[in-house]
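Tokens for Vacuolar protein sorting-associated protein 16 homolog. Go.
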Amino acid sequence: MDCYTANWNPLGEEAFYRKFELYAMEWSLKEDLRDCLVAAAPYGGPIALLKNSGRKEKSPSARPLLEIYSASGLLLASIPWKSGQLVHLGWTASEDLLCIQEDGTVLIYNLFCEFKRHFSMGNEVLQNHVLEAKVFHTEYGTGVAILTGAHRFSLTTNIDDLKLRRMPEVPGLQKPPSCWAVLSQDRVTIVLLAVGQDLYLLDNTSCSVVTPPGMSPAAGAYLRMAVSFNYRCLALFTDTGYIWMGLSTLKEKLCEFNSSIRSPPKQMVWCMRPRSRQRAVVVAWDRQLMVAGNSTECIQFVLDEDSYLVPELDGVRILSRTSHEFLHEIPEASQEIFKIASMAPGALLLEAQKEYEKESQKADEYLREIKDQKLLPEAVSQCIEAAGYEHEPETQKSLLRAASFGKCFIDKFPPESFVRMCQDLRVLNAIRDYQIGIPLTFTQYKRLTIEVLLDRLVLRRLYPLAIRICEYLRLSEIQGVSRILAHWACYKVQQKDKSDEEVAHAINQKLGDTPGISYSEIAARAYDCGRTELAIKLLEYEPRSGEQVPLLLKMKRSKLALSKAIESGDTDLVYTVVLHLKNELNRGTFFMTLQNQPVALSLYRQFCKHQERKTLKDLYNQDDNHQELGNFHVHSSYSEQRIEGRVGALQNAVDAYYKAKNEFAAKATEDQIKLLRLQRHLQEDFDKPYLDLSLHDTVSNLILDGHHKRAEQLYREFKIPDKRYWWLKISALATRGDWEEMEKFSKSKKSPIGYLPFVEISVKHHNRYEAKKYAPRVTPEQRVKAFILVGDLDQAADAAIEHKNENEMNFVLSKCTASTDVAVVEKLNRARAQLLKK
């Protein structure tokens, strides 16, 4: 701690930069990095190397070797490169490796050199070949930009939603640009390129010449350009050693620096910290590294070996054959605490804690000085923040001890920030371990989020560590442990060295009924790996039939899928499987399959009744279900337009009902056929619509039309009951107003329905005169009601008195009015009085 600032390098009056070692690399590289294609993923990501990439020999032993290492130099995977000539390597945001070939084909591999997919950058790129390529990141996703042999640019802003764009041509461009970069402005991706002393900006539609503001006229030709990690800043290096730094919009200059080195640099990248006012670029030559910013001075480092720069959110990683270093600006909190002779509250608190450990009274003096200025909460916050920026655990502990010491003297200091920092640092120290090799800084970790970090651990198949982090941070099971176990299971099914039974059992033992686990997804992965039987075993553990069935169908296990769907009780699921089987199997096999599943057969019949009635007939025929077949023919007859077709369908129904031994249905259907034929003749004879009327309506209409003989014929042929026929006839005659015929009919023979209906129907049709003809003929029991209906209260009273029925007398009295029916009322009252005396 005494020499803590020994490796601090000042840049101007306010900023300090520090370079420290992350890992001693043990990847045993025989080649220099300059002889390899190199790509390192940001956020402490993996490193891809293509060795022997310059060799042209075609012998298998001389094939280039594609290797992927962790940031600590541990080999993750390697494969001999058997495809075309590679021009560029790059990483996607999800840590997939993009291998861009000379013919414009882009091959995508995962961290373990396992091929995922490929795509082409188009025919023009194929014809003209790729001279240079760059991988870039925007809000749309990971993009690829290509410079072709025809000096034209093509790009896509999102490789997952491939839309190729051909950029406008640069007028008069006869040779490749000296340098170029991809910029993102107002959500539009553009290309900036340099040709000599000229800068050109290519957007979707045009090519324009641009001049950076404040650029010296004597600056010379452009050799190198660099875009910052967030794409907001741009740096240009010229052949006079002049460096211009400004906004990527080319509307504002930030600063400039003259390096006096004319040779073109190998690399130039930005070194910036979020929310910092300091702007700096790191320029690398073969054996020299320079940090230049808004100062007349610069920082220079000697490089002992060939190096490669990796720009990060808050600094630059420096790779070489033997070491992996990190160069960054010292954050303000660290500066305040560790700067020589600093009197910042955090610095005093750190000293106070050290003196307290020595049991020195100076601890009280330092503490009082902070408390007198009322800066103790700020001091604690400074120590907590600075601990996050430190890489060495001992320094982290020292700062956190100081923060813990200070917050003991503060009333109601919220502990959340301290606890959260302790948790975050424990996670960071775990993943920075050499065996894991993810050197994330605290700033990168917060930008990346814990969810993405867990995803990256899962991609590296570091399942135990990911689970321990979830448990330590107490993440919800669905967000944490369950998701990781599901990934582990998907990886487990790819292992070919164990039997299906063993793998399924191991997965179930580990996963059990953990919330959020989908066995169907794991089974789908097993099926994709060619392990169908394992997939079926895993599906046995899936509690949701809705997840089981689709995968079983995909695996051509339709009968098993049908059984599972029926077990679920979900009719929609059963329908899904049945319709799938219908399309998959021939008709006979399909019907035989349904025969063994009564539930499915019943549901399919319901479906056919509404959607496929012809199929329903085949089902009934196959089952010898003559009753339903007869019903089917009856139903079908109504869709026939011609009478012959309808009669034919009904005759088929008659045959089916006889086979089903349902004589009632057969006779009823025969009667319907007879009625249809009679209705056709009636329609032809009288030119009126009789078809599709019921028997009763047919008879009623005939009477209404005055065809009494035809009505009588139907009455006899269809054996209509007498009572029903009399009701039909008197109703129709009254409706027609044929009172004479009605009277004649009433006298033709004794009425089977009595004569009260004659009275009621006459009154209903407002003809009391006719009604009075029938009232005396009504039976004695109903005569009172009949006389009241025709309005003859006197006769009604006489009938009631004759019956000596008190209820009938009361009923007649209720219909009388005191003013008009005095005589009737008196007569009834006398009769009632006499009845009561007895």
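The chain has a mean pLDDT of 84.
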